[in-house]
Amino acid sequence: MLAGALVAALGYGSLHFIDASTPVAALLVPFLLIPTGMGFAVPAMTTAVLASVAPERAGIASAVLNTARQAGGAMGVAAFGALAGGGGAAQVVDGLRIETAVSVALLITAALLATRVRPDAHRGASSTRQVVTAAD
């Protein structure tokens, strides 16, 4: 997760330096780094989430993770679209600079959190808990 977040942050960070006259070919490297980094980060994130819950709760954990990813993606597209939308090329580039700075900050925060969170921090508590039913 750490490496993926840092690679994606590098891709977003390199977009910070484009302007309205940047050739399309110059976007190739950032547009390869971003999905490559996310391709490493997202499966690792899924593994971390599923490893942190008891096996019988894996479906719920997966559903919560995917709902959060989808909702976050939709809100991100809407917010970043509002920043970059309207106006000409200069406004789009100005909005893109803000968006890349926010993206880099969030990815670096995620990378730092990935180094601080222990994979088994919650496993013991959830797997030793007993369910009390009416039959007990």
From TrEMBL:
The chain crosses the membrane at residues 27-50, 71-90, 96-114. It is found in: Membrane. SUPFAM superfamilies: MFS general substrate transporter. InterPro entries: MFS_trans_sf. Keywords: Membrane, Transmembrane, Transmembrane helix, Transport. It is a multi-pass membrane protein. GO terms for cellular component: membrane. It comes from the Bacteria. This is Major facilitator transporter. It comes from Burkholderia contaminans.
